[in-house]
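Supplementary Methods. Inverse-folding protocol.

Structures were first reduced to a discrete structure-token string of length 161. This string, shown here, constituted the complete conditioning input.
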């Protein structure tokens, strides 16, 4: 299972709304107490709304993407940044589809993708895994990764370094 943090890192994209080139970023000292972080200043300014995603940077325990209001965080005080994010429904749907695919084809121990054999044949059934080498006629390199399975949908949101 991958998280929204994992997906954003893969895409190198923390701001999906091109009409807002500079997402609100709050820098300073933040305290997480009883598993919650007080972001009322961001909410009061309209920079963060209920259900909206935000990114924590600089935390020892909580770096990553969370949804406001966040609960279940690890208590700490840290110097860092909080970024408001605009994550489209299409990106969260993509994340759900990736995780569904992973559960079916990677996490399932009975999946042919998890077989140690490159090909098998029995009872009139046979399969051959791709060599994963596009240069030697394979369909794509490393077909077993979610990045390759969802390449076309990921490319829409990917930012170049």
């Amino acid at each position: 299972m991958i998280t929204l943090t994992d997906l954003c890192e893969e895409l190198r994209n923390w701001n999906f709304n091109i009409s807002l080139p500079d997402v609100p970023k709050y820098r300073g000292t933040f305290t997480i107490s009883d598993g919650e972080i007080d972001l009322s200043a961001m909410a009061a300014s309209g920079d963060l709304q209920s259900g909206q995603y935000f990114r924590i940077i600089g935390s020892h325990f909580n770096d990553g993407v969370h949804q406001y209001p966040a609960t279940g965080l690890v208590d700490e005080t840290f110097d860092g940044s909080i970024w408001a994010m605009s994550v489209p429904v299409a990106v969260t749907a993509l994340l759900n589809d990736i995780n569904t695919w992973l559960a079916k084809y990677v996490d399932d121990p009975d999946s042919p993708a998890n077989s140690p054999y490159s090909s098998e044949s029995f009872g009139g059934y046979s399969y051959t895994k791709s060599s994963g080498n596009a240069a030697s006629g394979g369909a794509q390199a490393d077909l077993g990764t979610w990045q390759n399975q969802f390449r076309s949908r990921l490319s829409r949101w990917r930012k170049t370094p």
